[in-house]
Amino acid sequence: MCTRESLSLLRRHRAAWLAVAAALALLVPSLLAVTARADENHGSSAHNVSLSCPGTVDEGDTVTVTLTRGSNATKPIKGTVRTETWFAQADDFTHGSTEVDHNGNSTEVDIDTTQDTRIEGDESFRIKWINDHNNAITTCQVLILDDDDVNVESLEVTSTPESGDVYALGETIQVTMTLDNEVDASNSAYVLIEVGGPDWTSGYSRSSNYFRTARYSSGSGTDTIVYAYTVKRYDLDTNGLSITQRESNLGLPGLTYAGTSTSVSIGGYSRQTNLSAHKIDGLPRITDIEITSEPADGDAYRFREQIVFELTLDARVKVHGAPGLKIALSDSGNAIGGGNIGGTQVAQADSTRWAVYDAELTRDANDSSEGATVIFVYEVGPTDKGTGGVGVPANSTDARTQFVNPDGETLLDEDGNEIEDRFEVLHNVTRWAQVTHQAHYDHDGLAVDSDHAVDGTDPLIEIDFGTVNNALGATLTFWNIPNDEGDLTWRADVTSDGDDSDSCEGANMGADNTINEDDIPELGESIERTVNLASGCTAGTYSLDVTATVDGEEVASASTSFQINLSWSPSD
To answer: How many CB atoms lie within 10 A of CB 37?
Structure first.
């Protein structure tokens, strides 16, 4: 019965058991599929792990490193996260290795950096992931941003112009940068200063060519760096120099953190514009005036002699036009002329003379048309007299009062505007144009000196050979003969080998000739007479001697030689 009941129960639940069996049959393949996927995740691709880290971190902050797998694997993958120095110091971050069981898709590892107070610049270190399964290595690099930076406490011009507020050619401008930390400076460190002025030629815009480089001078290893710039002849800033605000103009990476080779990044400075106490004027100036000639007779410059004035400037210049140099004659140191000569007040306007620019002598003195020496020449006139000497009045107005072109032609620029005579320098403002600046004409003058006395008023006879009555003759010019002491008597004699030559006498040779007192001109004017020289002369070398007397006293004489051959000519 029990057996029958049991069978009945089995029959009754057979359908249920079959359903259970069917369910079990379906479950087994499903579990097999799950196992297969798990095995697949443990294949080669399942063990690939990527490593990511931030590119930068502030000093003292934490770096979070992320390990990532490409699937939803659940089985851990073991490995090591290791940090290594690169350019950083070992104590700038947590150093060493960290064992990691990498579970799931993502695992994070924290690495701390160190906050310190030393200046070391930005430094980097490297992070590695070493996979225990396949020994694969993945790396990334992190830059620690140093927050112990350098700031500029002050950036100022610390030099003083010799003249008060204007730096002249050759003077040094000193710029001092004070920092809040010590730095090292190399010779490549610099500060750019801006140089400009209001009188540049119209139409030219400001450009980088106006920057001047003040280079490192001293202070490396300290918190005070000094830069220096020497004013050159093209520099001009009538408003005052400026210091730029841009960091790129401060010569980096010429500065490094003290004791390192790491470039400094600095800040905290501001632009300084048109510093009126620091104007710049590097235009050439006249530094010296000298008379380089000597009187021929050692006493005084006579009529027709040349007095040579040499001006020295502190830079090479180019002369345009035909400027003249104002000079003055001094009568034994008494008051004459206009202006001051070596401290002597001068008054007579007719003492003023003008020496003329001599291009050839200037070129020879400089070996080129441009140079620091400019030469003027004055030829003594028949009314010039200065027993005390000749000088150059001082010119402090800088208004070109002493440099003019009395008789020259007008020069025009490309626009048809008149160009004054000048000493000029060329300034390359841009690649496309040039700007010109005149040199300064102010100078201290030249004191009179009796060694350079002038007396062009002495009676003088000039002999000029030429043709007279279709034969060799000479024109005699009498200058400054006294006209209130009697008649002028003059005589021309020819000698050969020391003997009189009767065969070479002209119509008025060897005889006295008279000019009436009333026909003798005033001082500074002349009178001419002619003589024949080749009337039957034989070949040879002769001397012509001319004398002039007034009231029986000789007042002037002149001698020269000439040569007679098949074609006559003067011998000198």
So the answer is: 11
The CA-CA-CA angle for residues 476, 480, 482, to 5°, reads 110
For residues 205-241, one letter each, b for 16 or more C-beta atoms within 10 angstroms of the residue's C-beta and e for the rest, the string is eeeeebebebebbebbeeeebbbbbebebbbbbeebb
User: How many whole angstroms separate alpha carbon 201 and alpha carbon 207?
Assistant: 14
pLDDT tens across 168-190, in order?
888 999 999 998 888 999 998 98
To which H or E segment does residue 572 belong?
A: none
- CB distance 236 to 280 below 8 Å: yes
Task: Kindly report the number of other CB atoms within 10 A of residue 248's CB atom.
Answer: 8
**Beta carbons within 10 angstroms of residue 322's beta carbon:** 17
What per-residue confidence (pLDDT) applies to 20? 38
The torsion angles phi and psi of 550, rounded to 5 degrees, stand at: -130, 125
Answer for the pair 418, 412: CB distance below 8 angstroms, yes or no.
yes
Report how far residue 5's alpha carbon sits from residue 86's, in angstroms, rounded to the nearest whole number: 85
pLDDT above 90 covers a percentage of the chain that reads 35
Contact 435, 200 (CB under 8 A): yes
Of the candidates 408, 245, 259, which has an alpha carbon nearest to the alpha carbon of residue 323? 408
The string of DSSP codes covering 140-173 is EEEEEE----EEEEEEEE----TTSSEEETTPEE
DSSP for residue 409 = P
Strand, coil or helix: what is 27? Answer: helix
Q: Is the pLDDT of residue 61 over 60?
A: yes
Please give the single-letter amino acid code of residue 393. P
Rounded-to-5 percentages of helix, strand, coil across the chain: 15, 45, 40
DSSP assignment, residue 210?
Answer: G
**Interval 21-45 mean pLDDT:** 40
The per-residue pLDDT for range 229-265, each reduced to its tens digit, is 999 877 888 889 988 766 555 666 688 888 877 777 7
Identify the helix (H) or strand (E) that includes residue 28. helix 14-41
